Amino acid sequence: MNSDIFLPSQVAWATGALAGGPLIRKTTRLTDLPGIFADGEAWRRGNPQQSVYDVDVLGSPAGEGALCVGVTHLHTGNVGDEFFMTRGHFHARREQGEVYFGLRGVGLLLLQTEAGDARLEEVTAGSVHIIPPFTAHRLINTGKETLSSLAVWPVIAGHDYAALAEGFALRVFTSGQGFEVRHG
Ligand code: PA5
Ligand code: NI
């Protein structure tokens, strides 16, 4: 008998859907993102209840060394000409890194050091992104479907949103069928 074999949680690679465990979902709506998009007027004109992204986190591990697993589903859309994106954060514990995996859709991972140096990585199904310590991170959906990305991070990392009150050094806007990167 194999009745004592543990059945783990599952991620559906094609969609990022998590199943088989206690899940906590947090939805971030347009109304939750004041001051995040460059065009404040366009943000005010939008539907405040529109979901910009959902984050599903498995379980609630605690303590030094414990890891969190979550999937971000960043919907397609824009505010003015700027693509939908996550709020973005440093880890409160700056020395803690994180790994992102692209599952579905296309987009960009914006990384920024404490000195303000920013760079972009292309996110596609199967891409692997190692977010170094001391590096802020934000997902941007440049595609026409939901961008889903799996993340693994130390539970002690925490989130520091306030340190980015001035915004990131780069922004990404629609341009024809593609995108354009602008500074500031
Ligand atoms: O741990 C992470 O970096 C992700 O799970 C993010 O928290 C998620 O993508 C949502 O972004 P933010 O926390 O910047 O709103
Ligand atoms: Ni993070």
TrEMBL record:
Keywords: Gluconeogenesis, Glycolysis, Isomerase. CDD domains: cupin_PGI. Residues 29-177 form the Glucose-6-phosphate isomerase prokaryote domain. Its EC number is 5.3.1.9. This is glucose-6-phosphate isomerase. It comes from Enterobacter nematophilus. GO terms for molecular function: isomerase activity. Belongs to the archaeal-type GPI family. It catalyses: alpha-D-glucose 6-phosphate = beta-D-fructose 6-phosphate. The keyword Isomerase applies. Pathway: Carbohydrate degradation; glycolysis; D-glyceraldehyde 3-phosphate and glycerone phosphate from D-glucose: step 2/4. The keyword Isomerase applies. InterPro entries: G6P_isomerase_prok, RmlC-like_jellyroll, RmlC_Cupin_sf. It is an enzyme of class 5 (isomerase).
